[in-house]
Amino acid sequence: MAGFLIAVVAFLVVVTIVVVVHEGGHFLAARASGIAVEEFAVGFGPRVLSRQRGETVYSVRALPVGGFVRMPGMLGLEGETDMGERNFNRATIPRRAVVIVAGVLCNLVFGAICWSVAFTQPTQSQVVSGDPAAHAGIPNGAVILRQAGVGIDQSSLAATTASFRRADAATEGRPSDVVYRAPGGGVRSTIVRPALVLYPNVGSGPLPSTLRGAGAALVITQVDGHAPGTGDPAAVLGGGATVTIAGHLDGAPARSFSGVSISGVRGGDGTQPGYTAAWRIGYLPPAPGLPLPQAFLSGFQGIPSYTGQVVSLIGQLFVRPAQAGSQFLGPVGIAAVAGSAVQQGWVQFVFFLGEISIALGLMNVLPLPFLDGGRLLFIGIEAVRHRQISPQRQAAAIVVSLGFIILLGVLITISNISQISSGGLP
After folding, report:
1. Cis peptide, bond prior to residue 228, ω within 30 of zero
2. Which of 27, 45, 213, 256 has the fewest beta carbons under 10 Å from its own?
């Protein structure tokens, strides 16, 4: 019961923050552009608290999910407040476009700031769920001292990473002894059999786009219909020849694949182009926090790659809707992951908050009339035709697109519930 309440509260906090940030972008741009703002509301439903400052009412509403900014003339329909030349629909095309785009930009910037804050914090070690180290009982926060007879150099993150690469390679895929210091301070040992991991750092190929690209890692469970052997990882995967593989995304067994033929696999750690492979136990060593300038650089540099992943996933909706739909988070999925992040600590929660903020901003770019991208589409059509689309047609298109979004949300929610029931997510 406690976990459920944490998930619900975390969901409300995440959604409210990222939506208010988004609407705050619209609000600030509107004020700067001379467009009137009638209300800036946090939440929906009846007003609980409100205060008017100047022409704008700032309110808190009963349902703490998101928020909105209301500007006169947003739809151009009868019954809306008329503030003359300060109406939204009477502003110039550039001013309206800036107001619409500002929400997306605020989400992206806020997300990058969240990531930057998280990067400044030292992190404890993490054991990847479902990977060999987790199956062997090694807990999060443990510090591995020795693996397969190889001592782990703890003097720096680079030295630690290099030590683990040597240790993983030394196992050759065979069960090996791992000595670690538990979070409580005691030294323990266990036997761990590494997993064969493939890094598909390729732009195209037989794997779905959601399972390839820089940063992707796949746990290989079958090679030509059999469990992977031992020895050099590249040789196990054909030594350059064609092999047929099956497996799943590292840390996400529900995102599986089978019957995929690949060739040209080399040894490597995923930083090299092409297909590379290695033995891994699924352990991320503790890391010191980054200096603030470097953390901000890393936070903002993460936007392009994350954008590419989201765009690729959206594209897959039109090619493989069932498979791509399972990768999205609906309300249930966000609640589950947010609740898990809270229990892992504030750093994980802030990082997840950044992910959701950026994802919300990118989703709003879609050219659906209910979203910002749809409003930009209307503005673009107006710029070409030199006249606005009738308010009635805009309203009808918004209603239809809203219905589509609700239907998609229901399907994603059903998928998320199924994933949770089968042990997937968060």
Report:
1. no
2. 45
